[in-house]
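job 3f2a | input accepted
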Amino acid sequence: MSPDVVEIESTLTRIAYLTNRARQHERLMAMAGLSLDRAGVALLRQLAEHESMRLGELAVRLSVEASHVTRQVQHLERSGFVGRVPDPDDRRAQRIQLTEAGRAAVRRLRVASCQGMQAALADWSPEDLHQLATLFRRMVDDFVARGDEEVAAPPSD
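job 3f2a | predicted structure (157 res):
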């Protein structure tokens, strides 16, 4: 195993931990002026990436059971952040999409999140920020492209 790959994996694990802490979430909600749980934020962000999605598709993208998404969507629907629309490919099915309030909430989340990143990276040069953005985008694209490939099990000791 490449020492650089080990370092990248370790660093990504730390980033995931830092961004998913309850305290960080509370800070983000305070900055955005919202009251959402982490699952709601994840769902809104996922919907912001797409025009609309079926519940099952949302569950797959979030790597959770469909029942979890159903409950979360119901809560977000009652809060006015999402709505249901007919699926144009199957009139019997419904798709979930952001309402204007949901789009506004996502914009506020992004602004608050970017403000935090901007503060943390304030001493970085524009060139370093550009390079990091380019490499992150490339890494995510490669992860997505290889996401469905089978990974060989590590040898047993």
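job 3f2a | DSSP finds seven helices and two strands in the chain.
job 3f2a | closed
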